[in-house]
Amino acid sequence: MFHRVDLPEMVDLPAVAHGVSDTRLASVLSQGKVRVSTVEHLMSALAGLGIDNIHVDLTAEEVPIMDGSAGTFVYLLRSAGIVEQNAPKKFLRILETVEVREGEGDRAKWARLEPHDGFALSFSIDFHHPAISATSNFAEIDFATHSYTREIARARTFGFVNEVEALRSAGLARGGSLDNAIVMDEYRVLNNDGLRYDDEFVKHKILDAIGDLYLIGKPLVARYVACKSGHALNNQLARAVLERQSAWEIVTYEDAALVPKALRNEWQLA
């Protein structure tokens, strides 16, 4: 739950997929005319750390961009401490494949959730830019064997010099600079320190997807597969899942030994 505490009267904005009102440059939650923008990186950090009960107070419309990744949120949340509650965690397990699609042929973009005993994601990107094309355009992460903290959390958002002004004019990334994004001109990455991962571009898309899908409201027991997806398709997918009630069930694991490895805190905190 997000709370805008900077207003004359506090406004609550539930972190739910149907509360998303804008996905053009980031995922934006709205309650009437009140907005909270760029929620995806914080939501991704919460999902990655297994936090499913939290209140977030904000004194501005945009969640701070930090360094453009979820890494700072992970550090601060772990530093504050994560409390285990005396109740079984509830998961949303996908029973039927749900897919959303936009466009046809080579221009098609799509994303789907399919049954899987754990949590895994695979993502393909296709950007016609030399700096991005020089890196891997595909990544697959299965949290039974991979670490969110080590392998996903520090992947930064990316964009082009000519997009920075567009973001600012939209009221987003107000602190946007080389300190909190991978910025490129027509040919190369402008950040002096280069990339944090060899496949940082596609890994940031996975980071975003984790955050967008966490607006479903529960940790997922599923596999996410996507090609050129973004905030809009991710939100469409989340809504499509919730609307097709035959496609999922809520489950708990009373016996810790039965919890799939990908859903245990070991992968989240490693």
Structural overview:
This protein has 270 residues and is an alpha/beta fold. The protein has one domain (2-269): 2-Layer Sandwich (lpxc deacetylase, domain 1). The protein has 8 helices and 15 strands. The strands form 4 sheets. Strands 7, 8, 9, 10, 11, 14 and 15 form a 7-stranded mixed sheet that branches. A 3-stranded mixed sheet has the order 2-1-6, with no helix packed on it. It starts with a strand and ends with a helix.
Write the layout of secondary structure elements.
Elements: E1 2-4, E2 11-13, E3 20-22, E4 28-31, E5 34-36, H1 40-49, E6 56-58, H2 71-80, E7 91-94, E8 98-102, E9 109-114, E10 119-124, H3 130-133, E11 138-142, H4 148-151, E12 158-160, H5 161-169, E13 182-184, H6 200-213, E14 220-227, H7 231-243, E15 248-251, H8 265-269
Parallel strand pairs: 1-6, 7-14, 10-14, 12-13
Antiparallel strand pairs: 1-2, 3-4, 4-5, 7-15, 8-9, 9-14, 10-11
Helix pairs in contact: 1-2, 1-6, 6-7
Q: Tell me roughly what share of residues is in helical segments.
A: 25-40%
Spell the H/E element sequence. EEEEEHEHEEEEHEHEHEHEHEH
The second-level CATH architecture is 2-Layer Sandwich
Straight-line N-to-C gap: 26 Å
Strand proportion, as a percent range, falls in 15-25%
| Cα shape | globular
The low-pLDDT segments are: 266-270
> Total number of helical segments?
8
Average residue pLDDT: 93
The tally of domains stands at 1
- Assigned CATH class: Alpha Beta
Task: Count every beta strand, where a strand is a DSSP E run of 2 or more residues.
Answer: 15
Structural class: alpha/beta
Largest sheet: 7 strands, mixed
- Fourth CATH level, the homologous superfamily: lpxc deacetylase, domain 2
Evaluate the radius of gyration.
18 Å
CATH topology annotation: lpxc deacetylase, domain 1
Pfam families: LpxC
Cofactor: Zn(2+)
GO biological process, one term: lipid A biosynthetic process
Protein name: UDP-3-O-acyl-N-acetylglucosamine deacetylase
